[in-house]
Amino acid sequence: MIAKTSIYLLIPALIVLAMFAVSCASQGKRPLGMTDGKLAPCPRRPNCVSSEDHAGSARIEPLAFTGTPGAARECLKRTIQGIGGGIEFESEGYIWAVFKTTVFRFIDDMEFRIDPRHHVVHLRSASRIGYYDFGVNHRRTAALRQRFLQEQARPAGSSAVDP
After folding, report:
1. Could you tell me if residue 20 is inside a domain?
2. Distances from the Cα of 67 to the Cαs of 73, 75, 83, 128, 159, in angstroms?
3. pLDDT tens, 50-62?
4. What's the domain range around 85?
5. What is the pTM of this model?
6. In-domain check, residue 23
7. Which parts of the chain sit beneath pLDDT 70?
8. What DSSP assignment string belongs to 12-73?
9. Is residue 161 in some structural domain?
């Protein structure tokens, strides 16, 4: 009886330990950045979405913006931070942000390329490790899109207040 109880305790402990090890492994990789002036294509896994990818379920629409590219960049930075992301790197037309899951601290990377000619922001969101993300990247980009639209609608100089 004791051996059976020990197995029931050991299995969850091993699962948690394995998840922790996977989480630690996700800390090292970095996003690919831009290639030939565009965001890197998604690998053929369901844990990545991109507005510059033309493959079925990985395809999402870019964010349309009004105003100047600089204003769109500032709005995008507020939006990223407003939904819990941290900006790791930015240049005039590119932003790389990181989002971490609550429990196991898995890292997802979001990259943004501002296209001033077409008044859109292209985005790519991908899990650093694993195959399936249970739709996290799709939901995050949808939340970001909604928040970005709200931020753009705010009068200049007003500050966002979280609901």
Report:
1. yes
2. 10, 11, 22, 33, 18
3. 999 876 788 999 9
4. 2-153
5. 0.76
6. yes
7. 1-32, 55, 156-163
8. HHHHHHHHHHHHHHHTS-----EETTEEPPPPSSTTEEETT--SGGGB-PPEE--S-HHHHH
9. no
The two structure tokens encoding residue 88: 């790791």
Question: Tokens 């996977």 map to which residue?
Answer: 22
Q: What is the CATH number of the domain that holds 16?
A: 3.30.310.80
159 within a domain of the structure (yes/no): no
**Please, are residues 72 and 121 in contact by the beta-carbon 8 Å criterion?**
yes
Rounded Cα distance, 27 and 68, in Å: 35
Q: Provide the 3-class DSSP secondary structure of residue 121.
A: strand
- Domain count of the chain? 1
Tens of pLDDT, residues 65-74? 999 999 999 9
Pairing state between β 107-115 and 120-127 = antiparallel
